[in-house]
């Protein structure tokens, strides 16, 4: 077992053990049953040998039926115990799976947006699924089979040695050990194939999810054949990797194991036969010793390779999950992080520069102030960095240099939870949960009253739309909201953020998907809503922001101009140019 396997075990043990006294009792019971099983496995063949001996002696003992009866009972109890202990322990292991999955889920939620944009959901999902299967199998195989088998082997050796002689015991133990060592080595080798298979399998799952979630684009470009071919190629790799894994595990592990076992059995039987011929051993002894030997090796051959393979695969399957678990969040709370931002705070960006990737700076030395209760608008061409400013304020990312302040406090000193609770953001790209419209609106505010929801819906101009739907509020929005138009999604998100009643608003192109009429109505509502709340509004269409207290014109990550609408017009710069252009278009 490699060192990393130990650390995997160490991390997993608390999940199995710390589950309250009931589950702990189950665990202990299972372990006790394991030892009963070992004892029975050792006693049963002894009884059998004894019975054979009694029958073959001159005076057949009256005890024979009793001995055979005992043999039958012990054998049966042994067989039942195996199943009972499995049944008892699975509840414990499934609880461990549940807790591990939940921890992983929570952990993934603490990781940065950067991480989430970089992973493939399909790959993560299939890795989690495999880990969910691997955890119980790992403990089951190890705790109930492999470790007991090794204990049984040595106990059997001792009993055997005392009863029949240490030569036989040494032969039994060394034959078993040779077999075990071979299996361990072969399984270790076969995990290379397992790892390759896992990689290919993760890639394949990730691609399938990717392709299906781009269903519409696939249709737009009639590229089903192309997708088919790509998927086929990946599945072909998967098939090859899987076959290689199977071949190695069947031929290498089981086939080779059978060979090692066969040779041991042959040598041992030959040795016993000589003992009989030389008169050192009677027939009863021959049968008992031989039965013992074959039974021990049989149970080893039946369980050991399968279990060791399960364990090794289990560790490999857990690896990816542990890799995920060990990724630390990039955006973290400082130890002394402060809570809550007060109502309607000031916001300041001071010499902020930022790059998503090192080579390409997206914001250059941005400085501006947004006084309490005022509205600041950011305008500029697409890609100029407007949404990035919103993401930095929300602290999806930390600045590369400079700082962002809320009420004079660096956002890095504010608890993320309370920072995010105080900001209501209408993102540029709205995604919805595949739930009803109602559930999407109250998301985050499940305790909202009907009146609250009504108000939010009226605010977002959704009333007519919702009443026009046969299922009204209960209409399902489809995966990521695909069953709605862009404008409908945007307005649902608006209703949702209205319910949040935050201290700061960020509207990122809030009316980009709306028609001229709705746009005007909603712009008006936004203005009323943000009347005396600190508000950052990002827009492409300048009419939506003309009312703002201050406007920043952003170009290629730099502030080009700033001032009020009338100031900027009188400066007759880039803003004035854009304004004239947009006026003439309208
Ligand atoms: N997650 C990201 N990783 C790398 N680059 C990004 C990422 N998000 C945005 N960008 C880049 O940053 C620049 C600014 O993006 P953004 O702030 O969204 O622009 P705007 O909102 O003004 O249209 C763009 O050039 C964009 O390609
Ligand atoms: Mg944007």
Structural class: alpha/beta
**What distance separates the N and C termini?**
72 Å
Shape from CA axes? Answer: elongated
Give the spatial strand order of the biggest sheet. 6-7-8-3-9-10
CATH superfamily caption of the largest domain: ABC transporter type 1, transmembrane domain
The fold-level CATH name of the largest domain is: ABC transporter transmembrane region fold
- Please report which band the strand proportion falls in: under 5%, 5-15%, 15-25%, 25-35%, 35-45% or over 45%: 5-15%
Give the biggest beta sheet.
Answer: 6 strands, mixed
Tell me, what is the CATH class of the largest domain? Answer: Mainly Alpha
Give me the count of strands: 10
Q: How many domains, as an integer?
A: 2
Cofactors, ions, other ligands: adenosine-5'-diphosphate, magnesium ion
Please estimate the helix content. 55-70%
Number of helices: 18
The string of secondary-structure elements, in order, is HHHHHHHHHEEEHEEHEHHHHEHEEEHH
The radius of gyration is 36 Å
Mean pLDDT: 88
What does this structure look like?
The chain is α/β, with parallel strands linked by helices and 586 residues long. It has two domains: 3-326, Up-down Bundle (ABC transporter transmembrane region fold); 347-585, P-loop containing nucleotide triphosphate hydrolases (Rossmann fold), CATH 3.40.50. It contains 18 helices and ten strands. The chain has helices at residues 3-17, 20-56, 64-110, 113-118, 121-164, 166-213, 215-220, 224-277, 283-326, 386-393, 416-422, 437-441, 450-459, 463-468, 486-500, 516-529, 565-571, 574-585; strands spanning 347-357, 360-370, 375-380, 401-406, 409-410, 423-426, 504-508, 534-539, 550-555, 558-563. Strands 6-7-8-3-9-10 form a six-stranded mixed β-sheet, with helices on both faces. It has a four-stranded antiparallel β-sheet with strand order 2-1-4-5. It is elongated and about 125 Å long. The mean pLDDT is 88. Bound molecules: adenosine-5'-diphosphate and magnesium ion. Magnesium ion (MG) is lined by residues 386-387, 428, 508.
């Amino acid at each position: 077992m490699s060192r990393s396997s130990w650390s995997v075990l160490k991390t997993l043990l608390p999940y199995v053990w710390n589950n309250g006294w009931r589950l702990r009792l189950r665990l202990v019971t299972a372990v006790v049953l394991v030892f009963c099983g070992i004892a029975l496995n050792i006693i049963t063949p002894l009884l059998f040998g004894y019975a054979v001996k009694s029958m073959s002696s001159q005076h057949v003992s009256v005890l024979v039926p009793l001995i055979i009866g005992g043999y039958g009972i012990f054998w049966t109890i042994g067989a039942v115990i195996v199943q009972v202990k499995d049944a008892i322990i699975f509840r414990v292991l499934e609880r461990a799976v549940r807790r591990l999955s939940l921890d992983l889920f929570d952990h993934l939620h603490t990781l940065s947006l950067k991480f989430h944009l970089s992973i493939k959901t399909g790959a993560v999902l299939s890795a989690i699924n495999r880990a969910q299967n691997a955890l119980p199998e790992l403990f089951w195989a190890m705790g109930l089979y492999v470790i007991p088998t090794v204990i049984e082997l040595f106990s059997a050796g001792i009993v055997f040695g005392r009863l029949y002689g240490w030569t036989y015991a040494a032969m039994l133990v060394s034959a078993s050990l040779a077999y075990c060592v071979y299996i361990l080595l072969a399984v270790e080798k076969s995990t290379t194939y397992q790892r390759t298979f896992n990689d290919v399998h993760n890639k394949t799952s990730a691609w399938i999810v990717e392709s299906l979630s781009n269903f519409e684009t696939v249709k737009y470009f009639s590229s089903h054949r192309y997708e088919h071919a790509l998927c086929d190629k990946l599945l072909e790799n998967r098939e090859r990797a899987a076959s290689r894994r199977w071949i190695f595990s069947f031929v290498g592990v089981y086939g080779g194991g059978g060979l090692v076992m066969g040779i041991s059995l042959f040598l041992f039987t030959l040795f016993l036969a000589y003992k009989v011929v030389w008169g050192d051993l009677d027939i009863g002894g021959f049968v008992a010793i031989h039965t013992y030997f074959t039974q021990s090796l049989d149970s080893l051959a039946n369980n050991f390779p399968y279990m060791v393979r399960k364990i090794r695969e289990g560790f490999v399957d857990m690896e990816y999950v542990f890799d995920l678990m060990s990724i630390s969040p990039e955006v973290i709370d400082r130890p002394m992080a402060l809570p809550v931002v007060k109502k309607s705070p000031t916001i300041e960006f001071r010499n902020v520069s930022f790059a998503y990737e090192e080579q390409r700076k997206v914001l250059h030395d941005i400085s501006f102030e947004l006084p309490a209760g005022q509205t600041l608008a950011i305008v500029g061409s697409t890609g100029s960095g407007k949404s990035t400013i919103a993401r930095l304020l929300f602290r999806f990312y930390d600045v590369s240099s400079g700082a962002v302040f809320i009420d004079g406090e660096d956002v890095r000193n504010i608890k993320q939870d309370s920072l995010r609770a105080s900001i209501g953001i209408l993102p540029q790209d709205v995604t919805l949960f595949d739930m009803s419209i109602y559930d999407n609106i109250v998301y985050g505010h499940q305790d909202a009253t009907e009146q609250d929801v009504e108000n939010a819906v009226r605010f977002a101009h959704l009333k007519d739309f919702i009443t026009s739907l046969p299922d009204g509020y209960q209409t399902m929005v489809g995966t990521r909201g695909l069953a709605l138009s862009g404008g409908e999604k945007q307005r649902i998100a608006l209703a949702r953020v209205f319910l949040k009643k935050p201290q700061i608003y960020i509207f990122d192109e809030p009316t980009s998907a709306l028609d001229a009429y709705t746009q005007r109505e909603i712009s008006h509502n936004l203005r009323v809503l943000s009347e005396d709340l600190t508000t950052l509004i990002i827009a492409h269409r300048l009419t939506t922001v003309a009312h703002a207290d201050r406007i920043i014109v952003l170009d290629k990550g730099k502030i080009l101009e700033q001032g009020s609408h009338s100031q900027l017009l009188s400066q007759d710069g880039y803003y004035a140019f854009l304004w004239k252009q947009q006026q003439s278009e309208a």
